[in-house]
Every structure is written in structure tokens, then in C-alpha cells.
Specification:
Length: about 240
């Protein structure tokens, strides 16, 4: 076994151990609860633009992009645009793929940060309700996306159950075999976080649970979640298997 193979073997065995260690699970919950309370995700930028994601989630997403090499990564919820630039940076590194960012309102400060950026050729912005089928039609009309493309989907917009479930039903069929739909902020359920139209019992986690009931096309990838360790997507890394 060469050093690289040994590294990955040791990593995989270590990650398997996390699930068996109840103390680690409890400590992880406490850490994440603290990070949510202090708005830790708002500490970071990517290329000077606020990104608002758990760094560990971003590391595993870049691994997925590198391994899958998707033709498109669709992200709902653009916010400041930092995550768009992050995914575009990874795609520039592998010299393949494009990001499609969807938001109901792409604000002027976001357009200012993204328009004429050196990575502009790696992303495309669409303004519209991500849960509306008309927005999917707009994607097909304004990009070269086809049904045969490799696609990763990341859902991070309106966190209400109804909205996320609509997104899952709308975009999941675009996800290619062995690729993912990633649902962020499922931890709203366990962290007891409340927003204007979402909170415990009404959030991305509850939408995932309903979507996965009897679903034979997707599985929850626990290994990816365990590798991230500190994640905003508990039960939210959904891999398409058929």
C-alpha cells in the first residue's frame, strides 16, 4: 500500500469510528449548537465575498465536484454570491463545469460582486422562484443544460418545508446517477432555530424526510456527512443510486 492509499484507508477507518462513538456524537452536537448560536458561518468570505457556509461542508462539496466533474452545479439561494464563486473556483481548477445560481432576488451588491468577475465564464445567474417550474424552464432556455448532463444540485434558499419539498421534486430528476442533491440547513430541526416562515417541524429536514419516504432512487450518504463532521446538512447529502 503506497502512502496515498494508506492515507485514504486510515481516513475511511477513522470516519467509520465516528458513528460508533457516542461521546463524539454528543460533542459534535454541542459544538454545532454553539456555532449556530454565534453565527459562525458568517465569519468567512471567498475571494472577498461573504460565503456563509460551514467550511467543512465546503471541503466535502469541492471533493464531490472534483470526483464527479459535473457539467452543471445548480444552487438555489445565491445570497451574497460567495458560494457561487467557491464552486466556480473549483470548476476552474478542474477545467470543467458551470454553476447555475438561482434566487428570487439577486441584489445589486451581489451583481456588483459577480458581474465582470474573472470567473464569470464559470457561472450563470437566474432570477426567479426556485420552486416554480417556470424557473426550470428558464434554465433550459438560457443555458446548454440537457437531460444527459452530469448535475449536482444544492438547495439553500427558502428553508420552509413546502418550498424545499417543491425544490426536491423539481430538481432531483436532473441529478445524475452517483451524483447528489445536497440540502443545507436541515439542522434547523435539531438546533431549534426559527426564522420568519420556518423552524422546528417546518424546515429542510422535514422536507427531506417526506421526500425520502419510499424513495428508491436516492439514499442518504452518511459517509459524506461523517467526513464533514461539522455540517449544516445533517441527513442532507442525498446520492442518486438509480
Amino acid at each position: 500500500m503506497n502512502p496515498v492509499e494508506e492515507y485514504f484507508h486510515e481516513r475511511d477507518e477513522r470516519i467509520k469510528g465516528y458513528a460508533k462513538d457516542r461521546k463524539v456524537g454528543l460533542e459534535t452536537f454541542r459544538i454545532l449548537d454553539t456555532l449556530v448560536r454565534i453565527d459562525y458561518v458568517k465569519n468567512f468570505t471567498w475571494l472577498g465575498v461573504p460565503i456563509m457556509q460551514q467550511p467543512s461542508d465546503m471541503f466535502v462539496v469541492q471533493e464531490l465536484i472534483s470526483n464527479i466533474q459535473p457539467d452543471y452545479l445548480i444552487e438555489t439561494g445565491v445570497a451574497f454570491g460567495g458560494s457561487i464563486l467557491f464552486y466556480a473556483t473549483v470548476m476552474e481548477g478542474i477545467e470543467w463545469g458551470r454553476v447555475i445560481g438561482i434566487d428570487k432576488e439577486i441584489r445589486s451588491h451581489t451583481r456588483k460582486a459577480l458581474e465582470y468577475h474573472s470567473l464569470e465564464h464559470r457561472f450563470h445567474l437566474i432570477e426567479g422562484d426556485s420552486a416554480n417550474p417556470a424557473t426550470l424552464t428558464k434554465i433550459y432556455r438560457t443555458t446548454n443544460l440537457t437531460k444527459g448532463d452530469k448535475v449536482v444540485v444544492i438547495l439553500d434558499s427558502d428553508h420552509s418545508h413546502e418550498h424545499v419539498l417543491k425544490e426536491l421534486n423539481l430538481y432531483s430528476h436532473l441529478v445524475s446517477i452517483d451524483s447528489y442533491v445536497i440540502v443545507f440547513d436541515t439542522t434547523i430541526e435539531t438546533m431549534k432555530v426559527k426564522g420568519k416562515n420556518w423552524g422546528p417541524g417546518n424546515n429542510p429536514m422535514t422536507a427531506v424526510r417526506e421526500f425520502m419516504e419510499g424513495n428508491k432512487e436516492f439514499i442518504i450518504d452518511r459517509e459524506i456527512e461523517a467526513r464533514a463532521f461539522i455540517t449544516s446538512a445533517e441527513n442532507g447529502y442525498l446520492r442518486r443510486v438509480k
